[in-house]
Amino acid sequence: MVVGSDLLLLALLMLATGAVGGVIAGLLGVGGGIVIVPVLELALGVAGVDAAIRMHVAVATSLATIIPTSISSARAHHRRGAVDLDLARRWGALVFAGAVLGTVIAAFVTSAVLALVFATVALLVAAKMILPLDHVTIAPELPRGVAAAPLPLATGTISSLMGIGGGTISVPLLSLFGYPIHRAVGTAAIFGLVIGIPGTIGYIVSGWGDPRLPAFSLGYVNLAGLLFIGPMTALTAPWGARIAHALSKRHLSLFFGAFLLLVSIRMFYRAFA
Length: 273
Fold this sequence. Notes:
Elements: H1 4-28, H2 33-46, H3 51-79, H4 85-106, H5 111-130, H6 150-162, H7 167-175, H8 181-207, E1 217-218, E2 221-222, H9 223-244, H10 249-272
Antiparallel strand pairs: 1-2
């Protein structure tokens, strides 16, 4: 258990993580989890949390913080007309189902596996966003009906395994079908809420009663982390949304990709260390 000055340091780190995560959430529509998970995993290490469950706690706590952040980010993007409510309705149920499936899978895998999933997806998405592939598409528009089902289902499943709000998956995915990136970012904020709620509940259930959990935990969700990180992410998400709409499409893609590349390197190290 962390006490005294160590607790103060951890609290300050979580506040800083929440502030940065909120800006990234609004900027990229990613719910902040892409920042929160790797930094919180480090913070939990400082707190002495068992390495075998650190990624589970980081992912679960991140998903819980995504709920208020996604609401704040989605409202900010909606005011700018950047949320596609029709797409949100068509994909919502399958994104939700995928999030539930992801928490079930997470209950049976190790923290190293979660870190590897996180690192691999982050690297693939970084490559897509950094390379000059802005005009590369695989189809002129999104598929509909049964053919479209794997896209939102995979978005929900992978996102809940990574502790992210869906934007990391859905933004580049949508761009491959010629979808405008600013509209993809805005709509991704809605998916964050759809993923965050079932994902949080699933991780609470799967981690319930684990004796290795840190203090103030509800299943794998650490309430101390939620207390410090959540309000900061919700507060700063609108700042990121304002920045996003001031950037060009290419600049937004480069920023997204560079950030994910750094995160990927860190998580590969975590998976194989």
